[in-house]
Amino acid sequence: QVQLVESGGGLVQAGDSLRLSCAASGRSISSSDMGWFRQAPGKDREFVAAIRWTGGNTDYADSVKGRFTISRDNAKKTVSLQMLSLKPEDTAVYYCATGRTGGLLRLRDKYDYWGQGTQVTVSS
């Protein structure tokens, strides 16, 4: 069993930056892939970014590529999402997730455990 808690969300203006963090407790995540997803009002939950358990492979949604960076610290059991040049369309609840390594990083079904989410609101 793994518990995930996100933090770092907030209200910012377009062009600002935010850094989201996800802290894991319970079972070790050092051999698990980690991902960030987001869900805007009235929309499906969508893939944002993910990272292999080794930290050597990452994947990003086209909409955030070049602006967002995912990283992890297995010793601290944390994963972070650095978000630069935020846009109003980045407004959503951001969720951290973890799942067994293997398969496509961007597939939602590969993730077994999810956090409660943190709200990010970007005003124009």
Main features:
124 residues, single chain, mainly beta, 4-stranded antiparallel sheet
Distance between the termini: 40 Å
Q: Structural class given helices, strands, pairing?
A: mainly beta
State Rg: 13 Å
Please provide the count of β strands. 11
What ranges have pLDDT less than 50 throughout 5 or more consecutive residues?
Answer: none
Share of helix, binned: under 10%
Please summarize the sheet with the most strands.
Answer: 7 strands, mixed
Please provide the ordered H/E string of secondary-structure elements.
EEEEEEEEEEE
Instruction: Give the number of helices.
Output: 0
Which band does the percent of strand residues land in? over 45%
Please provide a written account of the structure.
- By secondary structure, the chain is an all-beta fold.
- Helix content is 0%, strand content 52%.
- Strands 2, 4, 5, 6, 9, 10 and 11 form a seven-stranded mixed beta sheet that branches. Strands 1-3-8-7 form a four-stranded antiparallel beta sheet, with no helix packed on it.
- The protein is globular.
